[in-house]
Amino acid sequence: MTRADTGFSISVTEGDDRVLVRLAGDLDENGSGLVALWLTPYVILTPGRPVVLDLTELTAVHHTGWETLADLVELAAYRRCSLELVADESGDGRPSHLDGFASLIPLPAGRRARG
Predict the structure, then answer these.
(1) 55-110 pLDDT, tens digit each
(2) Predicted TM-score of the model (pTM)
């Protein structure tokens, strides 16, 4: 799914063992709306299904984008979904788990992000 007017895209690849979601471009206010509209109903709401969210191709994440990622993490925890956030931080073409990324996302007290 791509929106040329925002420069933001989401691609979803469903496998037998997981769902891989790639976010690309500038995650601004419009992009956040797309994530909330498309990603949430089709991917995160499947209980027990592992989801890998690849942030490698994001060029920028604005405040509303962080809020949206926080919403996705919270919703995944509520739905008992495994949500892993990954990115190619080293530039070697192999996205790796983002250790400590969840600490950047404010969650309600008593909730812990798995990502």
Answers:
(1) 888 877 777 777 777 777 777 777 787 888 887 767 777 777 765 555 454 444 44
(2) 0.69
Concatenate the DSSP letters of all residues of 37-98 into one string: IIIIIIIITSTT--EEEEEEEEEEE-HHHHHHHHHHHHHHHHTT--EEEEE-SSSSS--EE-
Q: For residue 27, tell me if it sits in a domain.
A: yes
3-class secondary structure, 103: helix
Please indicate, yes or no, if residue 111 is contained in any of the structural domains: no
**Residue 94, in any domain of the structure:** no
Specify the CATH number for the domain of residue 6: 3.30.750.24
